[in-house]
């Protein structure tokens, strides 16, 4: 079976291998010697370097090799959201006091970081949020430069399009909710381009970091929790991670209900954005994910009927849901080579889907085309003297399709799916091939 669970290969930016992707553990000097950090998706994590200004007034000038900010540094960017609404964002620190973290010894209470992205009207005086907090950013900068064989000292990571703690735009009965789960060992920030776009179209999107599986999670006050997974994960390790992820997602749904009822589930009880309580339409909740995150969406749907519709972006189905199936809408969106003829888990799962279903392929894509790694890697290729063998490895992971175009296509089909099944608004994009998006192939 072709597994799409891991985020990146052992050489995060350079491996051209196929099949199951593995990770390597590296030692990173970050104030404490011997900190371990898995290298999956390093450059595509965000944040800003010391001195960078993550604000709405970031000024860029175009050069033949990319965009340069006012500090004269290469400024990586993500495609702007296409919806009509501006975006707010906030992060919450959640503690599941009923559950022990299976990855720690001695076992501590399970802690998570989540981000909420939502439509807003008022952004006056607010700053756009950094992609990743500063301490985590510097770990990524160091290792990404090593993997690319090019220093990133003059590179600033993206600033998101979400305004920090902006008030939530009111909507009668609240906004529909979508959960996002990233790939194995990946951080929640890797889905930012897709998450932001859904928020700009009127959804509250909740992205989840799966602590101690994710390569790094920064908690309030700068505390870092790093990956504790085996260097060479087995099927048993993937299955264990999937079970933890299901519990994480269901716990997050419970905390969202508390928040919506007027409670504050944040562990530090930080002030919530104005209008956030009561802004969620939890009766219309969906979920999507990349790689193991897509598997997580399917498995969580099987256990929890609060999730009405799900999307798997290029992830094999490894759990019981491949046999039990689902009676609710589900979309499989795979890379150019990830069809049911190549992945038996998709064939089995497909045969047990009893509700609305679609299987689409994105031409010219590879596994990482569905993450923020794609646009960032293409910008770095154009701007930095990256060795040819490293560029070849990047292409094997992000595909040959133009990254911004890939993001456009992915956004269109994700929003069409959730609009159809959570808002009952049919764009007819999922009914048949569209001349606007010839890159999408409908599989019978």
Per CATH, the class reads Alpha Beta
Tell me the Rg in angstroms. 20 Å
Number of continuous helical runs = 9
Name the overall outline.
Answer: globular
> What would the average pLDDT be, to the nearest integer?
87
Q: What pattern of helices and strands is seen along the backbone?
A: EEEEEEEEHEEEHEEEHEHEHEHEHHHE
Please report which band the strand proportion falls in: under 5%, 5-15%, 15-25%, 25-35%, 35-45% or over 45%: 15-25%
What would you call the quaternary organization?
single chain
Give a brief description.
This protein has 444 residues and is α/β, with parallel strands linked by helices.
Describe the structure.
One of its GO terms (molecular function) is 1-alkyl-2-acetylglycerophosphocholine esterase activity. It comes from Kribbella capetownensis. This is Platelet-activating factor acetylhydrolase. Keywords: Hydrolase, Lipid degradation, Lipid metabolism. The chain is of the alpha/beta class. It has one domain (25-442): Rossmann fold (3-Layer(aba) Sandwich). 26% of the residues lie in helices and 24% in strands. The protein has nine helices and 19 strands. It has an eleven-stranded mixed β-sheet with strand order 8-10-6-7-12-11-15-16-17-18-19. α6 (344-351) links the parallel β17 (330-335) and β18 (357-362). α2 packs across α9 (403-422), α3 (235-260) packs across α4 (292-303) and α7 (373-383) runs antiparallel to α8 (388-398). It starts with 24 loop residues before the first strand and ends with a strand. Residues 6-58 have low confidence and may be disordered.
């Amino acid at each position: 079976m072709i597994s799409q669970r891991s985020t990146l290969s052992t050489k995060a930016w350079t491996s051209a291998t196929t099949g199951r992707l593995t990770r390597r553990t590296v030692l990173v000097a970050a104030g404490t010697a011997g900190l371990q950090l898995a290298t999956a998706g390093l450059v595509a994590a965000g944040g800003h370097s010391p001195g960078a200004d993550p604000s709405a007034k970031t000024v860029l000038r175009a050069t033949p090799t990319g965009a340069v900010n006012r500090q004269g540094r290469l400024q990586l960017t993500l495609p702007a959201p296409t919806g009509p609404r501006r975006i707010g964002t906030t992060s919450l620190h959640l503690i599941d006091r009923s559950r022990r973290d299976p990855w720690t010894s001695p076992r501590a209470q399970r802690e998570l970081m989540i981000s909420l992205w939502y439509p807003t009207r008022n952004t006056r005086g607010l700053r756009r949020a950094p992609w990743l907090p500063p301490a985590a950013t510097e770990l990524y900068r160091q290792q990404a430069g090593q993997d690319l064989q090019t220093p990133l000292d003059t590179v600033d990571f993206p600033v998101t399009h979400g305004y920090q703690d902006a008030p939530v735009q009111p909507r009668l009965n609240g906004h529909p909710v979508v959960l996002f789960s990233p790939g194995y060992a990946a951080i929640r920030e890797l889905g930012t381009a897709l998450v932001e776009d859904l928020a700009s179209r009127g959804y509250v999107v909740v992205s989840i970091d799966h602590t101690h599986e994710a390569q790094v999670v920064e908690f309030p006050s700068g505390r870092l929790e790093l990956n504790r997974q085996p260097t060479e994960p087995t099927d048993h390790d993937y299955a264990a991670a999937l079970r933890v992820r299901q519990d994480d997602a269901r716990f997050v749904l419970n905390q969202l209900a508390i928040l919506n009822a007027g409670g504050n589930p944040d562990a530090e009880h930080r002030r919530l954005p104005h209008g956030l309580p009561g802004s969620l339409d939890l009766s219309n909740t969906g979920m999507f994910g990349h790689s193991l995150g897509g598997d997580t969406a399917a498995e969580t749907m099987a256990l929890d009927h609060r999730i009405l519709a799900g999307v798997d972006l290029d992830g094999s189905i490894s759990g019981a849901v491949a046999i039990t199936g689902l009676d609710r809408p589900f979309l499989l969106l795979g890379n150019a080579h990830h069809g049911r003829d190549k992945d038996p888990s998709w064939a089995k799962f497909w045969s047990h889907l009893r509700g609305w279903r679609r299987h689409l392929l994105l031409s010219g894509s590879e596994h990482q085309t569905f993450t923020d790694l794609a646009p960032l890697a293409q910008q770095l290729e154009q701007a930095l003297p990256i060795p040819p063998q490293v560029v070849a490895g990047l292409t094997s992971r992000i595909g040959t399709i133009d990254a911004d175009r890939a993001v456009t296509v992915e956004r269109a089909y994700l929003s069409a799916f959730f609009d159809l099944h959570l808002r009952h608004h049919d764009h007819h994009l999922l009914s048949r091939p569209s001349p606007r998006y010839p890159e999408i192939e409908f599989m019978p």
